[in-house]
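User: I'm curious what two different proteins look like when written out as structure tokens. Can you demonstrate?

Assistant: Sure. I'll show them one after the other, since each token string lines up with its own sequence. Here's the first protein:
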Amino acid sequence: MSDVIDDKSKYYIPFIVERLKLHQKAYAKPEDAPLFVIGMNGVQGAGKTTLVTVLAETLRSPPYCLPTAVLSIDDLYLPHKSQQQLAKTHSLNPLVQHRGQPSTHDITLGLSVLSSLRAGEPTKIPQYDKSKFGGQGDRVDEKEWKIVNKGDEKKICAVVLEGWCVGFRALGKTNVQRRWEEARARLAADNYEGRLAYNRLEDLVFVDKALMQYDTLTDQFNAMIHVDAEDIHFVYEWRLEQEASLRLKKGDGMTDDQVRKFVDGYYPSYELYTDQLRAGVFGPDSGKQLRLIVGKDRKVKNAIRV
């Protein structure tokens, strides 16, 4: 995979530090402040991993010395057997035939992790192995999950929840239908490059309804970072590079054709929810979100406070 240059930290580190200080300001001691939750959304392959690593290490290091955990939405995917059952139950819905879309995550597990971290209790951080079952993936055995807040360890004060659909909010059937009809009209006019129009409305509504549960995570965010792409179509090339790297590392994974079909399954949600995410997940409570717009080379072209 191409090297992802860290040209983003100069934007998001000051932003997060500012939001953190405001979060702690209401308390007599910074350590008395409740868990600081950072949401991070990034198009697949845009460099989220580098960004998350730098952010977490910065917060853990002087002068902040803030014990920080990282939870990926990918690590909340359903176990392979449960994903197979979901696909079988909704066999006509191509969007849920593999992991990815809202409905394929265990949100109850994610809420349990955040609740445990807030309480300062020993907490197991879930893990998921995407290379299992020929790239279909499966949850790692719970015995192998990392445990934080053990014994005399300093309690976790901040957590980063990252993922491709983090911060997406449901639109409701009427809005989904409107966007679907618009996409169908562009397809009929031969002016369309997306995937939304190729799906049945009822399948899109199923995913949107499942997304409503994800608000229980989003509503806990104290700050949000959105790594956006100048052109969402970049995701195909970036994801191909990502999978090639995974195959090299793990010895197993999806073929290029499988990757393209895999991204096709994600793409309708990019079409449906990206505009809303760009507008901000906090509604009228502005200033808590940072949008970094990156080019095909993954370098920042613009940074916008939302």
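Here's a second, unrelated protein for contrast:
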Amino acid sequence: MLAIIPAAWHSPVHYSAYIHQLRIAGYTSVIERLPSCDSLHPRVQSVATDAAFIRERILIPVIEAGQEVVVIMHSYSGGPGSVAAKGLSLTDRLAAGRTGGVIGLIYISAFIAHEGQTLPNGQMGVKNAREVFYNDVPDAIAIQAVNNLRDQARSTAFTPCGAPAWSDPF
């Protein structure tokens, strides 16, 4: 199972072509929009709230079903994704007599933060999104992607990361 954690400003629709190709290759995946993206209450969002959401809504249900999971984090989600996966490695769970667990972490142009570190970005709106995110993407795809971007809660840039899973044994 692949748990795909979207970047800031991005929702599952941005990953639909990627997920389609993974499905063709025989992989199953799960993805959900993070609470900090297009939030009705952006001031209460943080790395911690995104991490809790990823852990409780994406990782735990799959792991408790006994599945092994690779967490794929894109950009901003490297921070909360790492925190969410902490302590859920297959190694840790097998040692505790449980099945299922995280078997790998993949960071795609993602932040790899240490505990207590904040993510380096105070900009929560994106100017020139076509050039910033999609400069080498065909026009039709880039236009659709830009039209689907959503605001990102500014507070996620200033809240510290928790303990990351990248230091866990896998």
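A detail about the second structure: Strands lie at 2-5, 29-31, 68-74, 101-108.
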